[in-house]
Design goal:
Elements lengths: L2 H11 L17 E2 L2 E2 L2 H4 L9 H18 L4 H20 L3
Antiparallel strand pairs: 1-2
Helix pairs in contact: 3-4
């Protein structure tokens, strides 16, 4: 039976309850060239941490700071941005 059919049968059997699944993607880097994944697109804070909006704001501020500090070296700025945010987000996501 396809997984969506299993999920549908569970939901139908338990009216009034929500069924969902959560998956986490581990990436070695949050940017590639001039493309950057910010906020929830990049980081998966623990669902119960309440840190999605905070992480997005901190990540945006950090991105601005690193771009300002290395205006002529985008790769260095994005690497520095990723390093700072990785440390914070790994702790929130509890990734070993």
């Amino acid at each position: 039976m396809p997984s969506f059919a299993v999920a549908d049968s569970i939901i139908s059997a338990r009216a009034g309850r929500l069924f969902d699944s959560v998956h986490q993607v581990k990436m070695p880097r949050w940017s590639n060239g001039r493309v950057v994944l910010p906020g929830d697109a990049a980081w998966c804070p623990n669902l119960y941490s309440g840190m999605s909006a905070t992480s997005a704001l901190l990540g945006g501020a950090e991105l601005g700071r690193t771009l300002r500090e290395a205006p002529d070296d985008l790769d260095a700025a994005l690497t520095a941005w990723g390093d700072v945010n990785d440390a914070r987000m790994w702790a929130l996501a509890r990734i070993p």
